[in-house]
Amino acid sequence: MTENYFENPFVKLHFYKFGSGTQHMLCFHGLGMHGRQFKLIANQLGHQYTFWSFDLFFHKETQLKDQSLATIKKGLQKKELAAMISAFCKQEGIESFSVIGYSMGSHYATTIVEELPAMVKEYIVAAPSSINPGLLVRFFGKTKAGNMILEKLMLSEKAMINIINFCTRIRLIDPKSRDILHQEVVTYELRFALYACFTYLRLLETNEAQLIKSLTTHKIKSIFIFGKYDKMYLPTIGKAFFAKYKLGKVLILDESHEMINQNFVNQLVASLL
Asked: How far, in Å, CA of 200 to CA of 182, rounded?
């Protein structure tokens, strides 16, 4: 495994490279994780793929050139993300690739399929919040009132923990997800990053018609992976989408939200080979 940076006018993007295969896969991790999250997959598929796994915005070593509130509130446009990925691929000599995204990372993967479908060979999303992010995410990220509340809450660790615990009690999130979120609010810097993720990425909302058009027109192989016990993104969130798009493979694992493990890898490998 090696690591490096890609820079453009608005971001210094940290990424990991693992595997040595002739095919390429771009990897987008979940909230609070990092680019090494997908290293386990390379242990079995590294002969087939070269993996390029990014620390996403407001995570680990990746830094916006301007991380002011004004920039964060402006948000990331889909075409900006697509232009960044295109420039990255040009730098690394990548002409085509697959994408894999987990939870928050599924929004990145989906945007790339919408904007750069001619370059994409396979589309894999796990715990795909991009299909239906849920009422809370939309409220805090997309509405002015919700975003103002979230901005105030990031000043208070106690308030954030109380909200997370409340969401657990009413079963909007499961205990494992609660524990992950608790770790994301213990310092002001982490709370700021959480706020920034909700706010900066709010424009990466799936355009279902465009996604389906991209997948079908360009014959992109698609795999949707759910955890049977994932309280955040149960398989039922895809009911409306899969009524419109019937060509994707759907895997339901005996897992909770925290599903990137050996069982996940085994099921994914079986679906790709």
From this structure: 21
